Amino acid sequence: MKLGVLKETKPNEKRVAMSPNVAKNLIGKGHTILVESGAGEGSSYSDESYRTAGASVVNTEEIYSGSEVILRINAPSGEEISKVKEGCIWISMLLHKSNPELIQSLAAKKVTAVSMDAIPRISRAQSMDVLSSQANLAGYKAVILGADQMGKIFPLMMTAAGTITPAKVLIYGVGVAGLQAIATAKRLGAVVEATDVRPETKEQAESLGAKFITVEGASVQSEGGYAKEASAEYLQKQKEAVNKSLFQADLVITTAQVPGRKAPVLITEEQVKQMKLGSVIVDMAVEQGGNCELSEMDKIVTKNGVKLVGVSNLPGSLANVASELYAKNMATFLDHLCTAEGFKWEMEEEITQATIITKGGEILNS
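The structure assignment produced for this chain is given below.
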């Protein structure tokens, strides 16, 4: 199949949907790959590296006119949808539950829209799961950002001038990002505590060396690998259980997100007022409204003596490795959906059924 790789147009997005290494493998399987000139520059992939891999480097118009399948990381804008030819297949993260107007526009253009973020969290789909591969990197980067903003070091250090006590790190959410944040903070020498609405994550957190804060007498069920939205009663109990650790923490990392909905507020303004002077909160959910009431999108602000880091798109700040992982997820996903001759259209198969959002003008998932 003719696969076209478009340059990302979202502000501050440096990733690209296909790396030269993965492109070479796909070409070896019989696919033809067109790459928009300059698409890989933000990820340190030159046009020449794509040519060496066997891909053709072309302009934007040739991607739209010559591709059977267009690969991207982010969803298309309205202007970009108008350029896509009818019947084309578009594969990217679409966040379709949060963007009904986008999905309607794609359906109206009779574009087959395939959403990478809709891949179900089942064992056989793990190698395709872009949310996990990108969240893993984001969890690492959140700790590094927090360390940079803190006024102290992570590890216990014994010096001639005296002993430096280790930093205390609190992590909300023990999903993929939270687990990587725990592991990274522990490697740097911090004392780590973690909490999650799902009690089954306790063992995972403790296996990485974190103390798990349990909310007694309450729990939230998970569905499809994600926690369901917690009730106000549960969030109040969690707040009471976690407050002591929150007020003593040097660094707090929040990771809680609910697909298709605003992120839950886990840290209120009143709680921030009681935190240690100089402590830092890295709010990984800032793009979905934030887990802290005071977080601001793409800003680092200080409120009541606490630094709030609201940097969005953390995987994009690690563009080279993030793009390579995304491309590997994409290649595995393409192997599942199609051959070099075309798509299999196994519409009853679980992964295919979950990820094909529009087809032939019809909305299949909303």
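Interim note for the steering committee: Residues 43 and 320 are 4 Å apart (CA to CA). The mean pLDDT is 94.
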